[in-house]
Amino acid sequence: MDPLPIDELMALDRRHVWHPYAAMPGTGPVFSVKSAQGVYLELETGEPLVDGMSSWWTCIHGYNHPRLNRAAQEQMGHMSHVMFGGLTHQPAVQLAYKLVQMTPEPLQHVFFCDSGSVSVEVAMKLAIQYWHNRGEPQKQHFLTLRNGYHGDTFAAMSVCDPVNGMHHLFRRSLVEQYFADAPQIPFEGVWEESDIASFEAILERYHGEIAAAIFEPVVQGAGGMRFYSPQYVRRARELCDRYNVLLILDEIATGFGRTGKLFACEYAGVAPDITCVGKALTGGFMSLAATLTTSHISETFAQGEAGVFMHGPTFMGNPLACAVALENLNLLESYDWAARVAAIEAQLKQGLAPCRNLPAVKDVRVLGAIGVVELHDPVDMAVVQPQFVSQGVWLRPFGRLIYTMPPYIIEPAQLRQITESIYSVVAELD
C-alpha cells in the first residue's frame, strides 16, 4: 500500500477516523506518526518528538526495541494466534509462570485478557462468582475510591469516580457502587486514621453486600494523577480482612516499575486477593492484560454452580502478545530498572521544581517515573498540544494536569528537553 500525501491523509483522518475522547468530524490537533525509534516519534512532516508519555504509559523500553521485535518475528514463524479454549502453548504458559514469579506470592493463577479495562471486568466477575460459589450471592457490589479510574467498559466505569471522572454521562446506566472519600494524605505525609474513616464506615455498614474493594494502590492515575500514603493501602487490606471482603488492586498503570517498586502494593507491604496488570506488560508492542488471583479463590470455582469461571475472550492468551510480553519482562529483569527509575525520579524532581513558582501552577509532584504539574485551570488542548510539538516533545495533558511518564530508557538530555518544555509552556499560561 502506497503512503498517502500528508494533506490527503489528514483530510481522510478528520473525515473518517474517530480518535479517543474526541468528537466527529475531527477538529482538534492530530499529528501523524511515520515511525518510532527509541524514545522518539518521527512525524510524517519529518519532526522528531521526544515521547514523554510512553504511549499512554506502555512503551517502557521505547519503540522498535530489537529484542521485542525479534520475539515477535520468531513467534510469527510458529503462529500468530490460536484459540485458547482447550488449547495451550509455550508463550502463554511461560508468561503466566513469569507473572506468578514477579507478583506477590499469594497470586498463583493467571487469566489473560485483551486490555486493562477487560482485566478489571474479569476481576469484578471473579469476585462476584467467588461469593456465589461460597453461598453468598448477595455480595454483588463493590467499594471503591473517589478520583479513581479503572477503564471505559461498563463494569469498569461503574467503579470510576461518578462525578469527577470521565463517565458521569452514563451514571443512570451503571450499577451503583459504594464510593469512599479519596485519600488525602500525600505519599510521604504523616498518617492519620481519619483518612480512611469513610472507607471503614462503608465496610462496617454494607460489607454483607460488598464482594470486593477495588482501587489503584498509591497512585490514582487518570482520575487525577494523585499520590497517596501507602498506609492507606495497608489499612484497607486490614479492613477488608476484618469485614470479609476481597481486595482487588488495579496495577494496570503502576505495575512493572513505574512507581519505583515493581508493583505499587509493595510500598504498603500487602498482597491483594486479585490484581490487574496491563499497559506496560508487552512494552507497548500490542494489547495484552491479565488478572491474577489466589488458589483460595480459584479453588471455589469447580465446586460452584457453574463449575467454571464464566468468561472467555476470543483472543485470550494470544501467542504473539504473550511471546512479546515474556521477552519484555525478561528485558526488564536484565538491567537495574529500579536504579534507572530512581534516576528519572531525581531528575524530574529537579527539572519540574521551578514550575512551583509559576502563577498557573497549583502543585508539582513526582513519584518514580511519574512527573505531574497540576494547574489551577484546565488547559486548552488546541493551544497547548501544538506548543509542545513545536518544542520537539510529545505530551498529552488532560484537564488541569500536564504530566510525563517517560520510557525507562530515556537519557538525561532527552528528559531535560521534556521538563524544560513543560516549564516553558506553563510559564506562558495566564
The CATH class assignment of the largest domain is Alpha Beta
Query: What count of domains describes the coordinates?
Result: 2
The geometry reads as globular
Radius of gyration: 22 Å
Structural features, described:
This protein has 430 residues and is α/β, with parallel strands linked by helices. The chain has two domains: 31-64 and 338-427, Alpha-Beta Complex (Aspartate Aminotransferase, domain 1), CATH 3.90.1150; 69-333, Type I PLP-dependent aspartate aminotransferase-like (Major domain) (Aspartate Aminotransferase, domain 2, 3-Layer(aba) Sandwich), CATH 3.40.640. The chain contains 13 helices and 16 strands. The chain has helices spanning 6-16, 54-57, 66-76, 90-102, 116-133, 154-158, 197-206, 230-242, 295-298, 319-333, 337-352, 381-390, 412-427, and strands spanning 33-37, 40-43, 48-51, 107-113, 141-145, 178-180, 210-215, 219-220, 226-227, 246-250, 274-277, 289-294, 361-367, 370-375, 393-394, 401-404. The strands form four sheets. It has a seven-stranded mixed β-sheet with strand order 4-12-11-10-7-5-6, sandwiched between helices. A four-stranded mixed β-sheet has the order 1-2-3-15. Strand 8 and strand 9 form a beta hairpin. The longest helix has 18 residues, at 116-133.
